[in-house]
Design goal:
Immunoglobulin-like, 574 residues, Porin, 3 domains, 3% helix, 5-stranded antiparallel sheet
């Protein structure tokens, strides 16, 4: 695999590969947006070096990144490419401009490499002799590890090996479960600085003594196909990492043990480095929780991931871990970024894998629907002082919070195409607010225990964690929904004896008031799930004070739980 060409042709041996295998190698080169940062410093020698980036450095162009490193004169990225006819006359000496290489040269105007995607290997050419060294500091947006080995081809790869003290694991230890990479009939090369030639790159002859540096890239000439990157695979779902966004609540990570022995995996929350200038800044680390089964309560517990903890993975088995996020601790302006890293290390000191974790402050605007579970009713009956109901009974609740934070208690709401042009999907509290010929596709949600056309937007508190929202529903003494009013009963029609005049409130029917209080708690009530709490699910304690039904006010209490069915903050009200 050595390149015996002159220094202007820096690439080592490039062998022709089957088309299908090369197509498999393209996927890991595609950059993905991240927001979890880590700084890494690479030591470069004069001549040719090979480095591996575990995250993207695409927040700046190479011209800007390397303006303070004048010793770096060129950077080359290896691209497994399916179009074999575009090689030069010999695949051993690829020419500048072939698709196998993307190149940046200082001062050139025809560069094909503009930034540095992550999980990718690069050749870096520096001025000076091999004995001279310089440092290259790169702040990277961490990406989950990935690698694809190309059969019968050259693989320029790096690996998430663990630095234990001042030493890395050896090739033999790291590839014990993937021995084809370093088998006797294969060759491995590393760069040691200096010009291309017999001394650079050099073959690794002693895998049992050679350390596997996580910051370096190596050429592997191995006739294998696989996706090996470490003895223990760490597979997040989704593949780009634990990205919770504004509403996510529960994501999983699969640990696959490739070894024949049980492995203890230490999982450690790690802060993100500061974002580079011009990039979105991180507000704080993501407050993760870990879901575990509690055999005593026969339910799942969500415990804060406040420090390192250990998980045992059996030999040649896979386990799935579930991580949630504590939304009550993600506060600030809507969409503000929380970001951090989750580190996975093994007891054998072989691997050190980082997963990006991110979440955004959720806005609570939108339509929320759920139920109050009434469990206690004040009794005014003589000799009966108990308040607990025989069984809970439910009251449907509709709450809407608009984009300005105003919360409304509703008896019903319509979701569909609105009457005003451009007839966008929206919310309204009157059927007349819908587009006439689209009413059949609209949805109507109703809280039947409230009087028709109830829209109560005034009161105290707000729809937010830690707040108590109070909204009072007033039922006039002559309202059709007042339970004391009966149109055809002379004692309950609010008319005088001659039926020619209206009576004032309280003579035949009282005015009724329902003061509804919703206390939003940071944690769910007993019996409720923590999944989505604070973003897509809200709830807490409920109380209601009824006046007018009895000479003393009646109090009912219980709990409530709401789910967001729409993030539309706008609503059409009279």
């Amino acid at each position: 695999m050595k390149n015996r060409s002159n220094p202007s042709s820096p690439a080592p041996v490039v062998r022709l590969r089957p088309l299908a295998a090369v197509l498999m190698g393209i996927a890991f080169l595609l950059p993905l947006a991240r927001a979890q940062w880590q700084a890494a410093t690479y030591t470069l020698r004069g001549g040719w070096n090979a480095i591996y980036l575990h995250g993207d450095v695409n927040h700046a162009t190479l011209d800007d990144l390397l303006k303070n490193n004048p010793e770096i004169v060129s950077v080359w990225r290896w691209n497994p490419n399916p179009n074999q006819v575009q090689f030069g006359s010999s695949p051993l000496i690829p020419l500048v401009g072939t698709p196998e290489w993307s190149i940046w040269r200082r001062g050139a105007t025809n560069n094909t490499l503009g930034s540095l995607p992550g999980q990718t290997a690069y050749l870096v050419e520096c001025t000076g002799a091999a004995t001279s060294t310089s440092s290259l500091a790169l702040t990277q947006k961490i990406s989950p590890p990935r690698s694809v080995w190309v059969r019968n081809g050259a693989n320029l790869l790096g690996f998430p090996s663990r630095l234990n003290g001042s030493t890395y694991p050896t090739f033999s230890a790291y590839f014990a479960t993937f021995p084809a990479a370093i088998a006797a009939n294969t060759k491995v090369y590393k760069y040691a600085g200096g010009p291309m030639g017999a001394a650079n790159p050099v073959q690794v002859f002693s895998p049992a003594q050679e350390p596997l540096d996580r910051l370096q890239a190596y050429w592997f000439e191995a006739s294998v196909v696989g996706n090996f990157y470490s003895p223990l695979e760490v597979i997040p779902s989704p593949l780009e990492g634990l990205v919770y966004g504004r509403t996510g609540s529960l994501l999983t990570v699969t640990l696959r043990n490739r070894t024949a022995a049980a492995v203890n995996v230490t999982i450690t929350p790690t802060d993100s480095a500061a974002a580079p200038t011009g990039q979105e800044q991180v507000s704080a680390a993501v407050p993760l929780t870990y879901r575990s089964f509690n055999a005593t309560t026969n339910a799942f517990d969500f415990n804060p991931v406040s420090g390192a903890f250990v998980i045992a993975v059996g030999p040649q088995t896979s386990i799935e871990l579930s991580f949630g996020v504590d939304r009550s601790k993600i506060t600030g302006a809507t969409d503000a970024l929380y970001a951090s890293l989750l580190r996975f290390t093994d007891g054998g000191n072989l691997m050190d894998v980082l997963l990006p974790v991110s979440a955004r402050v959720t806005g609570l605007a939108g339509l929320w629907i759920g139920d109050v579970s009434v469990t206690n009713v004040q009794s005014n009956a003589p000799g009966n002082s108990g308040t607990t109901t025989v069984r809970p009974y439910l009251l449907r609740v509709l709450l809407h919070r608009d984009n300005d934070g105003k919360a409304r208690l509703l008896s019903h709401v319509f979701l569909g195409k609105l009457a005003p042009a451009p007839h966008a999907i929206g919310l309204c509290v009157r059927e007349a607010g819908l587009k006439a010929d689209e009413k059949a596709t609209a949805m109507r949600l109703v809280a039947a225990h409230l009087p028709p056309d109830t829209v109560v937007g005034t009161g105290s508190g707000e729809l937010a964690l830690g707040s108590t929202l109070v909204r009072t529903v007033s039922i006039p003494h002559n309202a059709p929904s007042n339970p004391f009013v009966h149109t055809y009963h002379p004692d309950h029609d609010n008319r005088n004896a001659r039926f020619d005049g209206a009576l004032s409130a309280g003579l035949e029917s009282p005015m009724i008031s329902r003061e509804c209080s919703f206390t939003f708690t940071a944690t769910p009530p007993a019996g409720s799930s923590a999944v989505g709490w604070g973003s897509t699910v809200l709830g807490g304690a409920y109380s209601e004070k009824l006046t007018g039904l009895h000479k003393t006010p009646l109090i009912v209490t219980g709990t409530f739980e709401l789910r967001r069915v729409s993030e539309l903050g706008g609503i059409t009200v009279p």
